[in-house]
Amino acid sequence: MGTDNLFKKRREAREKRKYEFxxxxxxxxxxxxxxxxxxxxxxxxxxxxIEEKPGGIICVAEVPSxxxxxxxxxxxxxxxxxxxxxxxxxxxxxxxxxxxxxxDFEDFDDAIEMGIKKGYHIAWSNQSFEYWLYLHFNYSDxxxxxxxxxxxxxxxxxxxHLGEGRYKKNDKNIYFLVxxxxxxxxxxxxxxxxxxxxxxxxxxxxxxxxxxxVYQLVEELKSYLxx
Length: 227
Fold this sequence. Notes:
Blueprint: H1 2-20, E1 25-33, H2 38-52, E2 59-62, H3 76-88, E3 93-101, H4 108-117, E4 121-126, H5 129-134, H6 146-159, H7 174-178, H8 183-195, E5 211-212, H9 214-226
Parallel strand pairs: 1-2, 1-3, 3-4
Antiparallel strand pairs: 4-5
Helix pairs in contact: 2-9, 8-9
């Protein structure tokens, strides 16, 4: 009787360890974004194309649950929120990406460093995600305030008659609009050109203005479409 109980306890212990050390689901992504409009809508555009592609295998979980638009909200809280998502996930994600901008937050560099130490991929932009969108049409290494990038996008949307003729953060078709003229491919090329001289051991992301690492995430996702 005692032996049976011992075997039962050992079996339960093995099952518990098996549960605790689950393997990540292949090709699974958790993408957590700072913004609640433009960024999730953009990545949902890629997700839609991947899911509609015959044989598509990627699963993207978009979690734009934290809005740090308000003054005083730290980007480090986005890292903490991601920690919670990872801990509560029933099946571990294989790839974890966090997307956020510098804006006027002083903890920008610390948040990037913290996320990398935790094993997350950080798709940061300095100053804003709109710089990444601008690269879909033109190259620029001009250090401009995020409001200026918005104005430049307005001009481009009018010029090319995109959407309603102006840039809207809540446009559900934002990915498809900026990709109208193979913009995604152009943006990746322009971003690589801009970031070629960026050396993290010599220059902090907050000092590299403009700059964006969003292309790394987009290029990775786009590879599922190009197969």
